[in-house]
Amino acid sequence: MRSLDRRQFIKSSFLGGLALTVPFGNEWKGIYDKTVTEYTSRVSLTTGDHRADMAFRALQPFSDLIKRNIGNKRVVIKPNNVLIDRQLAATHVEHLEGILEFLKSIGIRKNIVIAESAASGSTFEGFDNYKYFDLPEKYPVKLVDLDQEKYDLIHVFDEKDWRPHPVRTSSLILDPDTYVISAAKFKTHDRVLATLSLKNIVFGAPIKDVGFSWGDNRKAGTKNDKPIGHGHGFRAINYNTFTMAKVLHPDLSVIEGFEGMEGNGPNWGTPVDHRVCVAGTDWLASDRVAIELMGIDYADVGYLNYCADAGMGEGDLDKIEILGETLKDHVKSYKLNENLEKQLIWKNPTG
Q1: Domain boundaries along the sequence of the chain
Q2: Which CATH architecture has domain 36-347?
Q3: pLDDT score of 9 more than 70
Q4: pLDDT tens digits, residue range 28-83?
Q5: pLDDT at residue 4 above 50?
Q6: For a designed S-S bond to 168, which of 109, 121, 151, 201 qualifies (C-beta 3.0 to 4.6 A apart)?
Q7: Which residues contact 184 (CB under 8 A, 6 or more apart)?
């Protein structure tokens, strides 16, 4: 997309009227063509004052690869809507718009869905609250409530009885003919320190009964399978996230840190004005870079270390080429959840 096209995109956006604040054009030329044998993964880092613009630019270095990998597959964009009525805890519509505009720019203009199983209540109510229903007016995208779609069973273990337990899991996300884009957020977490692109998929794919919600509005007899994967313990959730990642991981990570969440995430934390976006086709490398940007000790994040040990992606920061912005210039130390010491029990096998 030429610079003029990008200006037209921002101007015509239904969220538009925002001025361009980040130059675009030749500053990218040549960066992505070089062959650096010591690097095994590449991750793009952008900054700016507009979420859609940041996501669009973060994805550009991977245009050819993404188009080739999508091929004829269905594209599923998975936001992170753990709550349906608190914007700070959920993926912003502008982030989704940037991803959709990018897909359009590489010729992907059909068979695209935005799909979610919101943790706290009605998925579509959350979509309405966050203005997602505005998107199909401009883009060829369908909105899907995973709770109303087909599911398969996968099994996880529970620290209470050390037995396998079935989890109803979205067939759409599990389908090998689905290209999964994790439209995640920078958020701290109360069990695994941080939730980013992988965890968005692993715990968004398990479904709940229609009518289930937290609190007094819950329909009698309904249940939610997401907590089963948590396994009643900090060791279990780290291990279950790792095992589920073998079949539930993004093909493309686009993680928004325009306004991150610190403290008591993933629901009730406080905002961090960070204004960054991370993207990459290696989800582990993308999450690793995001962890660094949040000022979190990677050695403390159990599930990502397990995945790296199993060779699911690149977890060594020295082997990840950062495209665009310089990583060290944008690190912010996020305040972690108040139960941090309990979360780190996974590091003590006998404790």
Answers
A1: 36-347
A2: 3-Layer(aba) Sandwich (3.40)
A3: no
A4: 333 333 344 489 999 999 999 999 999 999 999 999 999 999 999 999 999 999 99
A5: no
A6: 151
A7: 80, 91, 195, 196, 197, 199, 200, 253, 254, 255, 256
